[in-house]
Fold these 4 entries.
Entry 1:
Amino acid sequence: MQQQAAAYLAQGRYTEAIALYEQCINANPTLMSNYWHLGLAWLLQGEESEAQAIWLSALTQGNPAEIDVRMGELLEVLEAEAIRCLDNYKLQSATQIYWQILELDSDRAQAYYNLGNAIAQQGNLDEAIACWHRATEIQPDFAQAYQNQGCVFQKLEQFEDAISCYLKVLEIHPEWIETLYNLGLCLFQQGRLDDAIACFKKTTQIQPEYSQAYSDWGYALLEKGQLDEAINCFKKATQIKPEFAQAYCKWKDTLVQLDKSNEAINANASLLKALQTQQESTDLDWFLRNLWTRANQRQPGKLDEQTASFQQVLLVDTPKEFYESTWDWAVTFNLEISNYINIYPRNILHLIPPKTPDKTIHFSFRFGDKVELPATFVALVPDGRYWLNKSQDSSAVITSENQLLADISPEFPALSPGHPEKHPSKHSIFSLRKLPPPEKIDGTVTVLSGLLNDVYFHWMLDILPRIELLHRSGIDMMGIDKFLISSHLPFQKETLNILGITEANILETSRYHHIQATNLIVPSFPGSIAWMPKWACDFLRNTFLNKTFLESSDKIERLYISRSQAANRRIINEDEVISLLNKFGFQSVTLESMSVREQATLLANAKVVVAPHGGGLTNSVFCNPGTKIIEIFSPNYVYHCYWLISNIVGLEYYYLLGEVSEGFYLHKLLYPNSRIEDIFINLDKLLSLMKFAGAIA
């Protein structure tokens, strides 16, 4: 009975565990471990007071000497379960237990450290830092607690705080090369080049094969104008670990043969090829200077010099005020009944951490166990305006009183719902002095346009569900004169045709960047940009999964989705990857030539999908529950959108970080924009992850 109770507890079946532990106590009231586990089951069920009452009752049954022994036993049980929860990414449960441990004994440095780890992986970084700090107060030589603080501060670009923590670690463990290397990176960010060089140099003295340190040492020398010394360091890094450079040069040659290479790839390959040679190269200086200049060019913001100059002749004022929500605007003008149509209430997106063999999950997946998505609605804005900038990364819905409606005016970066940086006062439109004059349209126009309208993911998850909101609003579709939406790409034409939006009624987004309509209808987004609710996924599945297609199509259970036809985020050693996957029954596919319904059918039949991050994984929304998804990222750009879909649809989600050229800054020379960098895959790591996922034996 005790074993069955323990099994129920491990499975999260707390009610059954409680019932059995109570029977065990009735059978043997003197066996204390049953009380500890009974209380634990109540705690994990959310009944903290009941758990504490059970523990207190059992503790006080003995004499003072027995109480100390029993307290030790209780803490041992709680710590074992907390570690089990932490190891299995049951982070909320681990957090609950560690707080109880600290209520029983507030001087346990290890408990504060582990609590910080659990909290950090839920995205609460400030609270995690406080826990690690408390651990170091109790145990001043707790190096790993300083190390964790430093890593988080570095991630948050709070470099001074990171440096302080790393220096503490090195006082205790001066031989920790990862800490020494990260200290060098932080010092570089502060412009302290000589100090950074000293760290990189010392790292290589401790570990002569630490290639990243040679590479970033070289970049620091390059910043100081010491070109010859920089080249020597870059060469050393490439010679220690040549795999990326060799694969990149081979990949470039293949692209040249296919007439798919470009100037940037050619330049990158020329540098990497030159670095692999021992001979002096007169071209190497030129290659290096050319890439350094490219990497350090000013990245234009939303308001570049050309725009600023053009604004001198523009005539329309930008908004000066905002409503945080369209509901607030409707209430202010007594329009909440006539001009605001509620569709779906706020809803909770429940999150399960990705599955990984690593000890911690990547920062990009740390959002806790749930996120609240906003309610959806359709708004009618009389004489309203809509503006979308030319790069389609900033938009605005503006009332006739020249006020911004913030919750239907998204822009990039696409932050998580409720993120403090999303406050409307920070919208980029307020930094503009003028807008181009709007094209006035006499009639009713529905705005379906969003951000990056030609990107498949945003089209499917952000834009198309707005049509469903429009249908559910009860508005007469025949009474709408025009729809502002993109329609020039095949997947756009196909999906709009299925949803009944005809070409004759479309205002093309690329043509109409700023409009004002007599009646502007604006469906809200299904959630926040790139954050989708379950109903949006259900809508796509119901609309585009066709029973006839499913029954008649070839069923490919193991898929590798190639990005060989894309312009970026391609797999550098893809031939080797495909050769490996073929041994395990995988079939490589490119999706660009397939219709949306064909893509939906293909993914609906799959049981295992391996793919680099990109639009093809949008179709994971059509997968059946239990399908295994292995997403491959560049380590410098990890985005969570397909993990979110996996949570909603019920998929098993895994991720693999690719590898880059040795050293952070050498890679920045090759790829100044991390969002588009191509990816090199370590085949051993891919094989290991597939075994971990149970995709292969």
Entry 2:
Amino acid sequence: MKKITQCFKAEFKFKRIPMTVLIALAGMPPQAAAEETEGKQQDKALSATGDVQVVQQMLPEIRVNAAKESSYKADTSTTGLKFEAPLRDIPQSINVVKEELIRSQNAFNLGDALRNVSGLTIAAGEGGRTGDSITLRGFAAHSDTYQDGAKENGQYFRDTFFMERVEVLKGSSSVLFGRGATGGIINTVTKKPASQGDPFASADFTYGAFDFKRATADVGMAPTENISFRLNALYQDADSYRNFNFTNRWGIAPSVRFDFTPDTNLVLHLLHQHEDSVFDYGVPIYQGRPADVSIKRFYGFGEDRLQKIDATIATATLTHYFSSDFTVRNTFRYGNYDRRYRTHLFGAVTEAGADSTVARTQALRDSPQENFFNQTDFSFNKPILGFNNTLYFGTEIGWEDFTFRSKNSTGVGSISIFNPVLTSTVGTGRANDFSGTLATNRSITLQTVAGYVLNQFEITPQLKLLGGTRYDVLEAKQMDRLTNTELSNKVNEFSPRAGIVWQPASWQSHYFSYGKSFNPSAETFNLSAATAGIDPEQNQNFEMGTKLDFFNNRLSLTGAIFRLEKTNARTTNPNDPLLNVLAGEQRTDGIEFGLAGELLPNWNLSAVYAYLDAEIIKSNTMAVGTISGISQSLQGKKPINVPDHSGTVWTSYRITPQWEIAGGVFFASSRYADNVNEVTLPGYARVDASVSYIHKHFTLQGNVFNLFDEKYYQSGQARSALPGVPLTGQVSLRLRF
């Protein structure tokens, strides 16, 4: 049966088509006609003997091709229901960033690719955090990163060389992913071997301004019918528009697939990425805005630069089809992350006009992490009382170990903001190892045991219900080696989800959904005496949206309106300032739109926009403003790094079979970089463009970033802001074999 079904994904040829069918097709919209024809063909084929040869005898001479998926438009997702499902059947907002869009923009980092996601901004690492820091729908999503549906929350800057696409599920999603998932989750889908197909190989070479050099390779083959391989590799050697900065990387991502039987396969995947770069938070804040200095200005110590990161993720995924209706998939993952870096952070500003200075701190930090996760997921499609019904259920077991050590350097002096004189090193006070007195030395272990069940019930072909829940048991134990004290926190939590999907026509899908999530005190590997004894924060997401397809499924329009609220945020205990209570509230009301696909033949578009009205509704917490020096309540303030308006528009047009032009704009309104809303990062609109010459065996592509040389800041904190890229360019050669 599986082979027969696969046959219908190819091209059809008909020897004779009855005139009545031609007349009927002539009166149908193109999309409806295609569906009608395909349905009748499948009915005839499946009523035959079941032999593939018999089916083939019924087919071909006139060809009818299925609609080709647009370069920027995705029709399915593996994130919304754990298994691959049509986006139109998922009652939740999902953005999919495909490899074609990543290539067109030369988006070499996950953060660059995520600019194509509505309601998402890249944040500065808080407290010296390293790696991808993300804000989604107004809430931090630092630990909500996944790879192929399994948790992958290491702190490193993810390169895109191993990614086939990136999927972002919006709104509270603990029903599938457990702790966190407040604003949503980010799931990177890796490049894997195909079960069949001809050998292929490709290589990309890029050279750009600031001596940017990069090479990647992608090779795949199937030496036997049952074994296939794929290898992705990366080398990058790059300076920066920021003085004293560089980002050197190498990475490798081999994978192998074993098809033991037509119904059972095993995929092994390994990712190792090494990075040698500079810890740099940019320029200081002066009078509530980034200091008006050159974006290339560096305020650190040239000989003290250190940031080395190694990430290793090994995954084994075993899939078995008991039947066409019943599937089980088991995913085992091991993650190991090593980070050693020397921070450079700004302190208080001493204002004296052109002679103003800013204090600096420096610390050596080490934060190794080790993860083990095992997920087992089932999908069972079985009608109930004549109604279509799909049941998803599974379990997850996880173990995470995280250690954090920090040692401060001494003798770190202030520096002039507008006329800095650099010294090469802190000198004898520089922290080089972790002997002597440490500022921090703690380790924490998290253990997770969870199970979930989710059911999709089809009342009619136009009306579908989705409902389920997950139960998590999470236990955290932390040892502080400086004080020799142990803290613990245990959580038992249900996370429900419900939704309804109405599809009045094949090109329309409208939905309403409700979901919950929770944030335990140890979510980001840190317990304190103030938080260890309290329950998790609770979040809920109410969302109503629509998903429409036009032009024979070549163009999709999506929209959603939502309220995402944290109903019991941690805040200072009014009776004891050393403790927290769950008495705060935070809310984001928002609207999102997306447009992806083909406007006309050879004209592709990807556009997203979000309006976010985010606010801390209730809080007992007070904070001192870094500008005013006044203690203020956080109540009524806007959360950090949440612009009211943000979005991206990117389009490409194939002028001739060989020439393609592309370009777009990335924009965001102003946003606050501190808790009390005294520090503002200005809004911006950055325009990029590219041109490509496409040949059968190679593509030559030129990219220009920030075409109008807009001065902007991509992230910031209360005391620093990181400038974005200036006008610059790259040339890439892609070879295909």
Entry 3:
Amino acid sequence: MTDQEHFEIKGDRALSSGDTDKLGFRQVSRRIAASLVDRASQDGFVVGIEGAWGSGKSSLLFLIGDELRKLPSTRRPSIINFRPWLIGSRDALITGLFSDLSSELEKFALEAGDATPLYKSKAQEASKALRSFMNGLSRTGAAIEVVGEASGWGPAKLIGKSVRAIGDITRGESASPQLSELKDKLVKSLRELDHRFIVTIDDVDRLEPAEVIEILRLVRSVVDLPNVIYILCYDSEILAQSIERAAGVKSGKAYLEKIVQLTAMVPQPEPFQLRQWFTDELHQIASVKDDDELSRLRAVIDHEGGRQLLTPRSVIRALDAIRFFWPALRDIRADLADLVWLQIIKDGNPALYRWIEAYCATFSAISVGAARIEEAEKSKELSALFEAVPEGHFNDMMYRYYFAEQLPGVEVDYAEEGRGFSIFQHVSEHERDLAVRAGRLSSPDHYRLYFALAAPSHALTNDEFATIWEASNAGPQQTSDSLLELHSAAQSGSLTKADVLLERLKGQVYEDLSAKQCENFLTAFSNMMDEAYRIRPFDHFWINSFWERAERLVPFFISNLEDDDRKRVLRLMFEHGDAIGWLTSMFRRETFAHGRYGERPKPEEEWLFQEDELDEINAILLERYRSMSFQDVISSPKPVSLLFAWMQGGDKEGPCNLIAGHAESDAGFLDALEGLTSWINSSDRGRFKVLKRENLESFMDLDGTTARLQGLVDDPQLGERARRIVEVLKLGNEY
């Protein structure tokens, strides 16, 4: 996929030729296609593809058709895509279906020219029999209705209503015998032909109730023919309601069971798969400005995405909304986490989205002194918030905390008899100014911009689980080797089998791990995480990377160790672990989480390490950083992050001196500048490198560096490198 394609609005449409199967439906469609051809009865047959709106029924139907078309010519059926919602009347439905079937049968008869004379004759006979039956219908001026009670199906009966359009197809044929004889002849011809015709009918549940009944009557009685298989796509709950209204029966589901002989459910993707798909696509669209924004974006996708991104359609709609809104918001350096939070909510719960919009407008007016709000109005607005969400929506304390974090003046009410939130609380000028500078949703100067632009599981096999389980009992080296092997096995998008394993450990298995296994996993992580990046690069400055998943497991693993073992293992990891990049990533996370750097400390329950543990880790890593050469630092997966960690750990001079020493020569000077660059993604430029001003001035003298760099632009040996760095420095000021 090209960069431009990542930024195009996709729209709510099914998969088509050339699209990527994000959720693994291909394997399911292949099996269904094989069953339709090899194991279905020769009699008329109706298959139902069931799934909720947005679950991917149409995509699965496309893939089934695609698999059928790939079959060898001797097994390949004829496929008719009948779309009744494009047809206006009952008679036209009959006409349309017969017309499509006739066209496909005549096409098959023509293509049988290279077959044996007998088979060609059978194909021509079947085509003629269908035309005769259609002509007979036209000449009697008859339409078709079904005799019998609504819950059962009887023989077709003809009544005197015009179906003149069918005659247009067969005009010029001779007068037909009795219709029953013509139908019998058609049935016999199709049975002898022994060729499958598969009729797909999508979105049956979107028809009007009366149209639903007509379609079901057509496929079960009127055009119930040998070797003709119907595939109907629908949401069974919605379709049953339409049947009950139109047919006047008590149970629409029981009625439907008389029509559909076999159902296949659309595979339900796992929640983390949908969130991973979302984050993979989001990564191609936009980038964050700093660690704080990235941390909040992770929380948004985990907590709000976990509730709202429940179907493929919800993922596509949220991504399309971001593709539409982000270019304009990016230009004013708006906050990506805020936008993603709003767009996920807007699609999943429009009422909550409108409440947030109204709240932000009111709070903004209060913030600038244009309005005030009384306690009674606060109580009314809080009631409106709870009315906008399902009962129990805010019961989870962690979710409640992150919801409050997104909005100005919202605080969590932790009291047992409290109301869940306190709203319209005082916000300090300092906090307000921070929001304004960051272009946040909580900024009174910016909030309106956010509104006015107004499967099958990718599970590991039993053998793979057994292998990693055996390795985690054997030792850290075996565990490391097994993890790297799984990391090399891609699943979907950026997922690997190692990602899936870590998700399973986090969600289901870790409580059953022995202390020995926990120690081996922790030690393996500390040794192989940097190598995992080198073998299969991923963006570690993003959501749900392999590094991120491993970090989330650390507190689970160390909680299973005795106190002495915990201290010993942590010391072993940070003193001797080869994965200095991953260890540094954890260290920086904890430095911010504990409030030792930055202004947004995390609750203690979100810390990975205790205060005394972080003290020891800090001392260990500072000693390791001081022993590293410039080349050691630049060779790490995140050199800029390592330099900041060194500085934020309490030694500001150390990284500056290391860079200054290497930059004594002009070539070394350019090495240093290149080492301070970083990658970003932009919706208009794609992925490219920048040299951010804050990175540069944190470790080097900005004015002196800029002057020295300009002096090298015309150097015969180093000029080309210098000019490239000048360009990435300019980009760093723009993005």
Entry 4:
Amino acid sequence: MPPATSASTRCRNTRRCATPATRPGSSSLSRGCDGLRAGLALAAALLAWHATAGAGPVRRALLVGVNDYAAARVPDLRGAVNDVRMMQRILSSRFGFAERDIVLLTDAAATRGAVLAAIDQLVRATQPGDIVYFHYSGHGSQVRDLNGEEDDGLDETILPRDARLPGVPDITDDELDRRFARLRNDSTLLVFDSCHSGTITRGTGNLLARFVPPDERLELYRTRGGTTRDVVTAERLPHVVMAGAPADEEALDGPVNESWYGLFTWALAQALESLPAGSPASVVHAATQRELDQLARKLYMRPPPPQLEGPAEALQRPVFGAPVPTAGRTWLPVVAEGDRLLRMVGGLDLNAQPGSQWAIYAADAERFEFGRALAVGIVEGLDGRDALLRRQFGSQPVPAGARAVALAPPVTGDLAVRIESPPGARLDTMISELRRGLPALQVVAAGEPARFVIRFDGASWRVLDLGGLHEVLSVSDTTGTGAVVETLLRTLTSALRATALLALDNAAADFAVEVRIPDLAASELPAFRMRQPDAPRTRENSLVLEVASPIDAYLTIVSVDTEGRLNLLFPNDHQRPGFLPDGLVRAGQPERIPDALAPGNAAGFYWDYGPPAGRDTIRVFAARDLETARVIRGFVSQAAGDASQLPALRDSLASRAVRGIQLVADTAAPQPAPALGWAATSIVIEIRP
């Protein structure tokens, strides 16, 4: 079993099944409560899988997520349970998994005994032709290899809820391999969102790896592993394994749209949501990497690359077998509770946070076409796991059984930072000046989530990313307090506006636009140098983008520069009339913008880079219709002087998702309604002196 998955930041969750006094060491009360819950969950699993055994090909899933660990020395997580609840909704809505065939084991129910028993029952129930999905989100670790099968001398492990309590070992890769090797089907996807090496905590206190130190209690493992591994190699098994991090990197938890997830699981979910139902594992893996790249730009950090293993033939098969008739998007049921108030059942399963927007469709909707919604609502609050929506647009009645799909994430108007510096009058002055220049700035205490950490090391002020993994900016203290504050304000203002720009996203998009920098590997961070006035234009000092769309689309390209200014890059007043009129690109025809850096190019303009050094965020919008493109361009032009216009643009675009009266000419043959909808993608560029 390879090391596992994703990246992000966590705070401790102090809720317990038993009182805190029962947690350390004396676990009888805690384990008794765990055992009852685990037994009930497992009984449900056995009944469900027995009921469907022999009834033809069945799609079966076992989802395990652990936030709340019983042993005091195992740090709690915050996103693991969110991971598996989200995957449960996706599997049932989009991929034909019946709810009775999805077994969810979380926290107290996810004990060692319950997890292994559920896997055993899954293996027994699975018949040839069945589809199997196993997902684990939680801590990973290692233990000394006692059978000599591992090159590094260590077995990888996953930690159930009661791991590291007296007498309770981790679950080793040997134990998992022996069980999954007995599966008789040809389509199995195993996903691990954990890691098996790391430092546990990052320097900022913001990030907590999904890893705990190796278990030294070898006596617990000598009677469990056997003398041989008793498992065939991965190349001979039909299974596909996906994990969120290479063996030498950490899988992390972190905030995504105001909640917590494993970054790998979040990206995998978005990839599955955006792809056709029959996509093979190799395509899902590539799409997951793209989603991680997008997430990295929002969080100002670099998650580790996701991993994919399995036989070459299996990697080209659909991850969930042949497609079955299902909805084109993951949806949630909606109940009307008045003229303007709607209840979205299980909203938190899909991260329906306050401020997010959702499109409401009829009960039998499956395609969820943009422009055909009955209404658009914004989440105003939560009631348990349900989300309460206030209708924003659309006046049609919401019928029984209506369905809601995500439209846009919430827009936050605040920017949380933590400042690590010796206290004193100078620090107080700096904080006061930063708040004066950026009222949205929130200075948080140690241990609270922060988008950036500003750390004074005695010689310079360093701006670090979410996890303290990478340096965004360094300012010498010798420049003086005023210059330091001014430089910090530029960076923070740019980040805040870039966040607002990236929040302009259409989760209901039915196509994806792609952007890249020609001749640059996708894994590289684009970096440019400032062009001097008389220097020739090159790929190092003047930007060229290659944009491709699977449909005819009208492009709008916007940037937030290092100074925090919002700029409409394309279309612009300098382009020649014959160069992509109205910003239109044709389906399947990649276009370079501008077309060349040589004098006299067809575009009529260039994108040169000048001071100051820093980071630019570029957002590419692609609209099916010209009117939507013009709405985007008009708001961007206004927001160039007033960035507060960006949330208004989000509302304007959301309103276009709703059905409306269309004026059409009387013709002999009915004309199809114009196709609506838009998609967006982004790229971040470093500007160096």
